[in-house]
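Z., the sequence and structure:
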Amino acid sequence: MKIKAYYPNYFLDAGIAGAAYHILKGMQSPNNQIQLMGIASIPAFNDDFYKNAIPHWAKSIVYKALPPKTILNLAETIFRRTLKQGDIAYLWPNISLDTYRRLKDRGCIIVHECVNTHQMSSKVILDNAYKQLNLPITHDVTPEEVAIESAKLELVDYVYSCSPLVTESMLNNGIPEQKILQTSYGLSDKAIVEGAYSKKQTQYNQPVFIFVGSISVRKGVHLLLDYWVKAKLNAKLQLVGTIEPAIKTLVEKYIGQDNIEHIPYTNDLASVYKNADVFVLPSLEEGSPLVTYMAFGAGLPLLVSPMGGGGVVTNGVEGIVLDPYDADAWVEHLQRLTEDVQLREKLAVKSKLKAPYYLWDEVAKRRLNLLTEATS
């Protein structure tokens, strides 16, 4: 089986690009020829299975000489030339509809990576959230983007769905069940760290709750801030990430009050997780957030919405899963997790035990098995 994957991005060992890299790396096997291509990458990405459309030596020249759209078109052309009839084209986000059509005409088997819910479902969720806040709708899920995604999904043979809620959104928008390969994301070995629960806990004044990711309407941060203030906690909330311009004024009103602090985007997330006591994510729309898997790696109890749980958090086992709009339940469980050390410890133990199942190599093997069975 020949699998050739492409993600039009600059590859770092983080985010969805990092996920693509680790998944394809873990799919390597003697019986399969697997290749991943990005536009360009950090020099550390020098494995045989990974290729840059723009080689390291030409990167600075190309990025200075050509506009971004031209670079994207050039890289897609280079990727398409590597595929032949019968090859599996494994396509990650932001690849053009034209490439899907060309590869379909060429007789390739197309596998599509769904990193979030179907955009038709996403648009409804986000439109409603912005309207509730009386904000202009500034998210990037437009009718045009919905139409493009729908056209791509018509052309594909298989869809990797990273969570049950993503699968549900696909089914609700007409994607046949037989196309869907239900899977997950994962975490790296280095994300398994000794956190707050590596030693016996005692009652102390201020447990630290962390929210990690885009501080945005989509992630439900406006709801979290409201619930946090209402709960009147003897605890600290750290918001880690970049604030969405649409709610910058709203968020900044809270920072510095009620033990709420903001940590701008950082590459040292390991330290953030090590020093935390609870992971919290009330997302309104997601796929399966990588930051949630990192909470497993740190052995943190989780307080999440169904979307924030990404289909991998079991309610009452590793964490608490709540409807993001259920204010009373969020206030109650914020208070419980602040005051009840034994509950935090109980959830933390299960969280830590779950991490090895989601190491990238294990996830990759399960994904390869799904695709092998589907195409046999």
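The domain at 189-357 is CATH 3.40.50.2000 (Rossmann fold). The first helix runs from residue 15 to 26.

Let me know what you think.
H.
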